[in-house]
Amino acid sequence: MFSFTDLNGLRVDLSFTRGEFTVEPKHVLVFLKYDNKWLCTIHKRRGVEVPGGKQEPGETLEEAAIREVFEETGVHIKNLKWFAEYAVHDEVLFCKTVFTAQFAGQEDIEFDLETSGMTWLTDDEFANHPNLSFHMKDEGMQKMLEELKHDDQW
What's phi and psi for 65, nearest 5 deg? Predict the structure, then answer.
């Protein structure tokens, strides 16, 4: 397990072993790289980040990941694969499941109140974009990117 303090001052535990946390994940995050670029959404408050969000009632984490990616970017995904989980020690402990996915297509969509669009970022832009959200800049993101380098699909 890898533990760090995020940029909001909260302790975060990151694990690449499934089911290591006592709290059940209710949030998702999805890494997708296509044509050597990372899929990101543009959150109106937080900035540029990897797509993800909350699981809705009656929905599996996989269904939540597919829905969130589409709602935030218009991108259809395939070959969703469990990658990691992390627990954020906020007032109420919460856990996110991190998936990887592959590109299956894209539609033009109307973006909701939370996001203002999507973008594809090169590795350099992904690391250095001037409007990255706070969690894109923390030690956990760097650790996940290091681990992704060992994954065959990247």
Answer: -60, -45
Q: Tokens for 106? A: 């894209």
User: In a structure prediction context, what are the per-residue pLDDT tens digits for the chain, which is 154 residues long?
Assistant: 999 998 889 999 999 999 899 899 999 999 999 999 999 999 888 899 999 999 999 999 999 999 999 999 999 999 999 999 999 998 888 999 999 999 999 988 787 777 788 999 999 998 888 999 988 888 999 999 899 988 655 5
Q: Which CATH number fits domain 2-148: 3.40.190.80, 3.50.50.60, 3.40.30.10, 3.90.79.10?
A: 3.90.79.10
Per-residue H/E/C for 83-108: EEEEEEECCCCEEEEEEEEEEEEECC
Whether this model's pTM surpasses 0.85: yes
Half-sphere exposure of residue 99: CA atoms within 13 angstroms, side-chain side: 25
Domain boundaries, the chain: 2-148
Bridge partners for 89 per DSSP = 11
52-54 vs 115-121, strand pairing mode: unpaired
| Amino acid making up residue 94 | F
